[in-house]
Design goal:
about 700 residues; alpha+beta; Arc Repressor Mutant, subunit A; seven-stranded antiparallel β-sheet; five-stranded mixed β-sheet; 24 helices; 16 strands; about 45% helix
Length: about 700
Amino acid sequence: MEEEKIFRKDLLEILGIKKRQWQALQKKHKAPSPDFPAQVGHPGHGGKGHGYIVKTLLPSLSKSQQEKVLAFLQKKTTTESQALVCIPPGPVALIPEDCPSLPTVQYDAETINIPRAHEHTEKERRRFAEKREVLSVLQGGDSIKEKERLISLWKANNPDVRCSFRSAERWEKDYREFGPEGLYSDYTRGNCSTVTKEQDAAFKKIYLTQQRPSAQICRDLLEGQYPEIPSAKAFMRRLTKETPKEVIYLKRYGPKAHNRKFAPYIERDYSTVQPGQIYVMDHCQIDVDIIGPDGKPMFPWATGCADVASRKILAFFLGGPPNAATIILTFCRASLRFGLPRELLIDNGKDFRSRVFSGGVKRFRMEMDVEQTKSLLFQVGVVPKFALPYSPQTKPIERFFLTRKERFSRLFPTFRGGNVQERPEELQAIIKSGRVPSLDEFEKIHAEWIEAVFNNSPHRGAGMEGRTPNEVWGVNNVARMVDENLLSLLLLKSSRPLKVGRNGVRHLDRWYFAEPLLHIKGEDVYLRYDPGEMGRVWVYSMADAFICQARERDRIPWGASEEILSQAMKEKRREIKAIQAYHKISDDRSREPDLLKAFIAKKAREHSTDLSSDTLYPEKPLLRPFRERVAQKDEEEIRQQRERSAELSTRLMADADEEEKARQEKEKIRREFTQDFLREEFPDMWGGNDGGIK
């Protein structure tokens, strides 16, 4: 029989000594020595330093320590003997050395009497039966070598069962400590967790929120509610075991983040798209500090246009914040160089939905309207397709932005990164040193990198098959070439619908006039104009028909010269003559036929109607006295009205005379008062027979 040993862990727990203190004692006594025994290997663990032989250990301990160790060993021996009695007999109690084969394992839960079998899976019940049979085999050996031999024979008869002698000893220890429950795996033993259902529910209520508190904070909050509460790791073990990872992510990070990381995605079939059929456009800010045109640092925005099928970058524009003008310029650069597509996939932002570029089309609006008709895209036969809002994955050009950041932007010393974590610490020092490229320099090297590197690099995306964008672009290209003059005209900005008034058309606080506008006053039109030259505009009807070119009316300043006024009046007379010439009307109307009379006569002939005066207005005797009375009454009223008018005039004249007399009387009194005042204040200056000043 082997000498009895004790684990170092158990020894330190019995003596109440920490591991570091024990190591310090070993170093002090220069173990191994007579005062401090050497560590030896322990059965089932291999190596050295896991325990001590009790016989050599006791002399180095004090009396109280020896009593503690002996009590522990006695208790352990009693527990092991009781546990070994409980091990059910296996199919083989003692296996002879020359036994060539062993019986196979039976997995019938009712036959082997697995405890709480209904609470475990079939796989766990099978593993339980395997472990119990291994323990039955292990009882047949008295020494380690004998037990190892028996386990080897059993494994040869059951090659599909995972087992080793070291595992068998560990299972035996678990059986002695926990009983039959110990043969289950650690994560299925007992109630599966030290966390109760009530504690788990309370923990999930706090932890699974988008505020994302840590597990330790959630555990601390529950500490006052439950007297005995497990550790934060225990809560997390149960949570991760019972709750899928994506559900935890959804609760803590929200639906959008969950959609980007866990939700299934839709793949496009690029074999159905030809090069030049669909273009895609979008904005992106480049994370490189440069010097702008005003001499100040800036991080430029890039508006890019790419072909969907080939991933070829067709055009771009670098500058300040994007708007409708930068979008139009980028699209025209791509169209003039490579041709027009059939469709254009663009963002759903306001700048892309501008009336000038796409006609102000809403995202899901299908009907055509005037705004669409006069937009740039519809004029050149390109159908705009708007991406879903807040869905960058719907635009293939977004992948190019990441490639440019990783393979181009990071190579600049002034790269700042997309967030604070990516920002280099030396960025501010580099900017202060002046080693910052200008916008022109950056734009030149950016264009060269796209043409020489990106468009000539093999791609592994769908439909690319390792080819470069230039190679794919040159196969079955369907882009349409566009007339440069037509595109230049369509580049003019469009106004909102305007109404033609008396002075022409008013736009941006300016009046524009041409003679053709005189005949469409009150109608709605729209203007095309060049923002750099506002002196003239092109007028179009709402049906997109060209009307005329109108020029700005000059305002006449106050105090203008006679020459300027004369010229303005001359233009006004010319406009009036143009109106009169449009409908030439003769002053001699007596020669023209009376259209109304001719129309009445025609209808009378058609219906045989008598239009003689005797028929229309017959003179009856009873009507003559009535007419005479009406005429007399009218004369009397006229006479009375004249008398009232004369009386009113006389009264008004009398009132005017009285007012004049009153005014003269007031003037006389004022003059006398003034003379009396001057005579009293200045007697030396006042004299003479006429009472005047000397």
